Amino acid sequence: MTEDAISPFWTLAGASTHLVGAVAAATAAVWLLSRRKGFGDAWPAIVIGLALTAIRCLIVAVLGDGGLPASLAEAARNLAWLGVTYRLFAVDGRHASLGPIRPVLAVLAAVELLQAAIDVIIVHLAFGPAIADVAFDSIVLLRLLITVGALVLVHNLYAGASNQSRSVLLWPATGLAVLWTVDLNLYTIAYLTSGWPAEVAALRGLSAIALAVLLALGATQERAGQRFRPSRAVTFQTFSLIVIGAYLAAMVAVARWLSYAGGDYARVMGLGFVILASVAAILFLPSRRLRGWLKVTLAKHLFQHRYDYREEWLRFTRTIGNSGGGAPLGERVVQAIADIAECPAGLLLAPGDHGEMTLAARWHWPAADVPAVALSPTAVAFFEREGFIVHMDDLRSGRDSRGEGQVVPEWLRQESRAWALVPLIHYERLVGLVVLARPSMARQLDWEDFDLLRVVGQQLASYLAEHAGQEALAEAGRFDDFHRRIAFVMHDIKNLASQLSLLARNAEKHADKPAFRDDMLVTLRNSADKLNALLARLSRYGNGAIEKVDAVLATEVVDAVAGRFRVGHPVVVGECLDEAVMANREALEQVLTHLIQNAIDASAANRPVYVSAAADGVHARFDVVDSGTGMSPDFVRTKLFKPFFSSKTGGFGIGAFEARELVIAMGGRLEVESREGLGSRFTIRLPLTATSELFDNRAGTPAEKAA
Fold first, then answer.
1. Which of 294, 662, 669, 671 has the most other CB atoms within 10 Å of its CB?
2. InterPro entries annotated for this entry (predicted)?
């Protein structure tokens, strides 16, 4: 057969597909050499058929499809696969019972040999164009007879097989059907057009590739229940290689086509195309969005489940267990759950002191503006009750399935990067809430996402609860050590106080001069009172005990405390409440003194500290505000009110803890708002005396009526 002139593109395409087909067929042949049991008695014939197919594809790739070597190689290949078809009938013994098989195969083999002989004669004898056209039509017609007969045999091979044999025959029968069907279409077009369809012939290498792959898959079916299950990583990498290979092949093909086009600008056009294609590859292939889209698409269409649970669990364990990596537990918790959903950042909210949730950790999200109370107690109760994972896109679009729209705070709605809220629940208690940032390839969450995130959230909740328990035990141990040391200090001071008291009593009896005696008594009594006051304060460490709560004028306490600091540092008294609050004056002065001193330590020398007292509903509100260095949210939540943590050199770390305990013992609350570089605001809330009396009267009315 002769080959008409075809375009350079189809020449390149034909050479490429046949070269890949040769590699695939040769690889399958070598691989099947060690798997003799894959196809029973047909195994040697299949190996030979693959080898001859590889040789034929290689000849076409190098020499083209129109010469005598390609025609003879195709004849040898066809004879080999006819022999394979006959041997496959032996899988269930039909080669002995079906008499017509041998005559049909013999006829098809004879026709193939006749066609090869005609080709040899045409090449060696010079005939005119008329004879050559007749020979071409004859060869095409003979090849049509061969392909039709082979397809009939393949149909009978599989359709008449027993149920037990079909599992073995499925793959080779499918591969042979693909091979003969492509040839049938090719020769049908050639016969009807009286010309060689070079475009279709250029793609015949694909049928060799399909045949090799299907036979390789069929050889693995000898193992019961075995399925082709590549991992997600292998699938994604393989698909990426295919995309890159297709991209390179397209680049080379277009460049070759431009070079064949000729002309003065062909070289410039080819170079320009390569440059533009390279720039496009550099810009788009490393894109996180493109990789995310590929992963989602492959998981959706190639796998039954979106997640590789084994791989996800191993990554989760590595992230949580990497305690030596320097990242605190809170950040590792966020990272562990963000990696699953392919999220680039996240936040962790943890329980505060009054049922709310505050910011506990950030992971790659420094710009998120989180208020001091990140989640209200009402929202915490909702998540504890429902255990519901909130998809923020659904919430913003108006979909509210369980009432989450009423509890999700406004700052989360306005934060455009917030994508999902995952509660961490441990024994029906919310120990944390993870806010996930929007991934590069955002998608709609489905049941599999919710199930996996819920299970992972429960596991992370147990880690956080265990960590909190360990911290509580460590704190209790430090308190125990502190109390033991304080006991010795109290013992020594108590002895000193006893000696001073004894000295005072002896002086009352033996002093000769009345003036000296009076002065000595005043001095000794003052010293004894101071020591006893110190003992009282030391005894309160750890339990926040308050001896008595009375009505105390807020303005008197603020003025008295502020007056102690006006000489060394500017302390400005703002609005001052002229009402009484329920407090212990000594304890309230001690708390304000500590807060003002800390504010002075954190501020520059020329920066004043502001103190004020005002009514706030049923409470009095004492504010101590500075514009000093401020504190990070992590320090406020984890260290400010923890005993034995101090940011001052030589500090004991007990002042802030004691201040909060004293305020709580007086029935109030101590709150703090701070920003690094901007300053801090400490707020003491104590009940007003009038409010307490009103509540006491309402509580006592039923008793009085009963009396």
1. 662
2. GAF, GAF-like_dom_sf, HATPase_C_sf, HATPase_dom, His_kinase_dom, Sig_transdc_His_kin-like_C, XrtA/PrsK
